[in-house]
Amino acid sequence: MNLSLYTVAAFLIIDTDGHRVLAKYYHPKSHPNGESKKLTTVKEQRAFEKGLFQKTKKAGGDIILYDSHLAVYKHSLDLIFYIIGDPSENELMLHSALVAFSDAVHMLLRNQVEKRGVLENLDLVLLCLDETIDDGIIVETDSTTIASRVSRPKADTSDIVINEQTLLSAYQTVKEKMQQRIGQL
Questions:
Q1: What local confidence, expressed as pLDDT, does residue 161 receive?
Q2: pTM, full prediction
Q3: Closest CA to 85 of 138, 149, 17, 142
Q4: Which residue in 3, 14, 40, 97 could disulfide with 138, CB within 3.0 to 4.6 Å?
Q5: What is the β-pairing status of strands 69-76 and 79-85?
Q6: Burial of 181 by CB count in 10 Å (0-12 exposed, 13-18 middle, 19+ buried)?
Q7: DSSP assigned state of 9
């Protein structure tokens, strides 16, 4: 029985042509079984991704056992999201992490989850992934929590404290001093 927190071996986003959009493979050194020797080179990773895409390119499924890896996947317009784990991992946990990530990305990108939108907002997508999975450990499965941690708060200039020497007040001070000096001439 596997009681390790390290449940995720990889996270992938592949487009409908089979090309990699995003790939993050986890090989934690502190894993109880030692560092994984599977899928360590780019050549192995590309071959794995190509074969996995061939098996999952048609919509309809959401879980597959491929090349001694458990793959949970979800189609979204022209992208396919994958979470890869060991065959002994809990499928429901992997699926809930994938759904939480996908829903958070949908919230952040305002339902424009397509290849172009993901590439334009890759920073948000990567932050979202990091909030969901940390070094192979699923840390969050609530999509609203993930989205709220990742979203950029709007700058509110009305809360500037007058006691602090901010850039705005420093500019005003310099401007007043310059006007006084010019007035003295």
A1: 54
A2: 0.74
A3: 138
A4: 97
A5: antiparallel
A6: exposed
A7: S
Q: How far is CA 16 from CA 44, 54, 114, in A?
A: 20, 10, 10
Average pLDDT of the segment spanning 59-82: 87
Radius of gyration of the chain (CA): 23
DSSP state of 67: T
Reported in sequence order, the residue ranges of the chain that DSSP labels E, i.e. its strands, are: 10-15, 20-25, 63-66, 69-76, 79-85, 133-134, 137-138
Tokens of 3: 């009681």
Can you tell me which residue has the tokens 């949908």?
106
CB atoms within 10 A of CB 151: 14
Q: What is the mean pLDDT of residues 31-54?
A: 79
With contact defined as beta carbons under 8 Å apart, do 11 and 31 qualify?
Answer: no
Q: Give me the residue label for tokens 């098996």.
A: 55
Question: What's the CA gap between 92 and 135, in Å, rounded?
Answer: 19
CB 129 within 8 A of CB 101: yes
Helix, strand, coil distribution of the chain in percent, nearest 5 = 45, 20, 35
Token reading at 104: 């958070």
Most trustworthy range by pLDDT among 3-12, 29-38, 43-52, 170-179: 43-52
Contact at 8 Å (CB) between 7 and 85? yes
